Amino acid sequence: MTETTVEKPSSLRMIISLTLVSILSGIAVVSVYLYTKPIIDENKRRAIEAAVLKVIPDAAGYQPFLLEDNTLKPATDSKTKGLLFYAGYDQHKQLVGLAAPANAQGYADKVYIIYGYRFDCECITGVKVIKHAETPGLGDKVITDQSFVANFDALDAKVNVEGSALQNRIITVKHGAKTNPWEIDAISGATITSRAIGKALDIGAGQLLPQVLKFRDQLEAQ
Amino acid sequence: MLDDKITSETFWEGVWENNPVFVMLLGMCPVLAVTNSTINALAMGLATLFVLLSSSLLVSLIRNWIPKQTRIAIYIIIIATFVTVVDYVIQAISLDLYNALGAFIQLIVANCMILGRAEAYASKVPPVKSLVNALGMGVGFTIALLCLGSVREILGSGTLLGFDLFGEHYQQWVVMILPPGGFFVLGGWLLLFEWLRQRKEQEES
Amino acid sequence: MEPTGLDFIFFNAFLASNFVLALFLGLCPFLGVSGKLETAFPMGIATMVVMLISSVCAYFINQILVSYDIEYLRLISYIAVIASSVQLVEMTLKKFTPGLFRSLGIFLPLITTNCAILGLALFQTFKEYNFLQSLVYALGAGAGFTLAILLMAGMRERMDLARLPSVTQGAALSLMIGGLLSLSFMGFAGLGS
Question: pTM, whole model, 2 decimals?
Answer without folding.
Answer: 0.83
